[in-house]
Amino acid sequence: MDGNIFKMITIADIASMGNALSGLGSIFAIFIGNDVLAAQLLLLAVIFDSIDGPLARRFNRTQLDAVFGENIDSLADVISFGVAPAVILYATAPTYWIIIPCAVILLCGLLRLTRYNTMLIDQRGPTRTFVGLPIPVTSFTLAALLLSSVYDVYVLSILMIIISVLMISQVPYPKVNDKRAIGIVAVFMIICLVPGINGYFAYIPSYLLLLASLLYIFGTIIYGFFSEAQIRNIQDRLSVFRDGINKTSKSSGNLFKRK
């Protein structure tokens, strides 16, 4: 290790830097009053974040590459999915109370990423779920709301707080590996990225992206709740059945003893 930073950078790290620059660009865009561009750059950040992992697995050559990549990825995520949504939320309604959800977004994002990196140390092999809501969902949802032009600042603030709390929760969220679902969402995201797009061509994809986000956020919780309820119901039935067998066995034993 000679400390030459340019030798450490891989193609996956370039994607992570694209993520960070997109997040920074979204902040600049919201300050000049361009909500659509800010939302588009948030979506672009999500796209960059979604490809840096596969690129790292394909092209990173050494353990040093992996460690360098994990760090730059997390730092980029802080900018695009922590700082950027907090600043954009504040810009939509610069009042004193809006500081609270902005702070919650940033702090929960920092905690979420720190926990994720810490858990990577003990992780052995790939997993099927995330512990807590993945942090890109914050910017993904915010971008969909901005593009749909139907958001209310109070509803948006409450939703962002809920998302932030779910990020640091222990709710298991599935990793989406269905190529067809990923492809459909990617197409809608690309449509939303087209410059100058407006009317139904902009609103319909943004509504669908918002629907996909809300289904992932809340559908996972609902599905998990009913799954646990079903498991408990089955366990209760088995317990009753087992108790019934035990009582029958004891009664039979006592009957034989009397005889």
From the 3D structure, determine the CATH topology: Four Helix Bundle (Hemerythrin (Met), subunit A)
In terms of quaternary structure, the protein is: single chain
Count of discrete domains: 1
Structural class: mainly alpha
Description of the molecule:
There is one protein chain. By secondary structure, the protein is mostly helical. It has one domain: Four Helix Bundle (Hemerythrin (Met), subunit A) (Up-down Bundle), CATH 1.20.120. The protein has helices at 5-8, 11-31, 35-59, 63-92, 99-122, 136-148, 153-167, 179-192, 200-258; strands at 129-131, 172-174. A two-stranded antiparallel ribbon has the order 1-2. The relative contact order is 0.10.
Features:
259 residues; mainly alpha; Four Helix Bundle (Hemerythrin (Met), subunit A); two-stranded antiparallel ribbon; 9 helices
SSE map:
Layout: H1 5-8, H2 11-31, H3 35-59, H4 63-92, H5 99-122, E1 129-131, H6 136-148, H7 153-167, E2 172-174, H8 179-192, H9 200-258
Antiparallel strand pairs: 1-2
Summarize the structure.
The protein is mainly alpha-helical.
